[in-house]
Amino acid sequence: MPITEFHDSTDGLAPGQRQRGHFVANLDLGDDAPWIPYAEGVWIQPCRFNVTSGGFTVILKAMPGASLGTHYHTGIVQGFTMQGHWRYLEHDWIAKAGTFIYEPAGEAHTLVIQEDSPEPAMILFMIEGALVYLDNPADGYFAAYEDGFSALALCRDYYRQNGLDPAALDVLIR
Ligand SMILES: [Fe+2]
């Protein structure tokens, strides 16, 4: 989403409509579930859109060999690997089922799923703040932006274009 579209970021809800209480979301992680295309071989399902401080929580699914462009985080990220083998090109560890990661704010990295991953990777990411995608892995400049608002817009668009009710996403907005 071009940053010029962010003149007036909003959750799109009428005044007083945004919920503040607890909620539960029962996700369907099966192949036929509404996985939202995010990048080549990468999909997401939203768990929460944090339009209060700008972050978001998603389940990310990605095929062996898929990757996510180099991006910089303005806030911390916590991730839990549910299945699959993946890593960041900038680190020497490989995450597998059960791997929890904590990423400090200010880190740029490139997510790749191992070519020999025995199954698609599935990772719960709890993201505070925004991702700033870079146009070049080394000394890159701004290429694209993602936060709770843009993720909400992306998911709503997908729901609208695929015959799903975008209002079903509203419960995930806090
Ligand atoms: Fe990241």
Descriptors:
single chain, 174 residues, mainly beta, six-stranded antiparallel beta sheet, five-stranded antiparallel beta sheet, 1 helix, 11 strands, 8% helix, globular, binds fe (ii) ion
Indicate the low-confidence ranges by residue numbers: none
Strand line-up in the sheet with most strands: 1-2-3-9-5-7
Q: What does the overall shape look like?
A: globular
**SS class:** mainly beta
N-to-C CA distance: 21 Å
Relative strand content: 35-45%
Number of helices: 1
Number of strands: 11
Pattern of helices and strands: EEEEEEEEEEEH
Which ligands accompany this protein? fe (ii) ion
Quick one: biggest sheet?
Answer: 6 strands, antiparallel
Mean pLDDT: 93
- Helical content class: under 10%
Quick description:
This protein has about 170 residues and is mainly beta. It has 1 helix and 11 strands.
Structure notes:
This protein is mainly β and 174 residues long. 8% of the residues lie in helices and 36% in strands. It is built from 1 helix and 11 strands; from the N terminus they run βββββββββββα. A hairpin with a 2-residue loop joins strand 1 and strand 2. The longest helix is centred in the last third of the chain and has 14 residues. The model has no long low-confidence stretch (mean pLDDT 93). It binds fe (ii) ion.
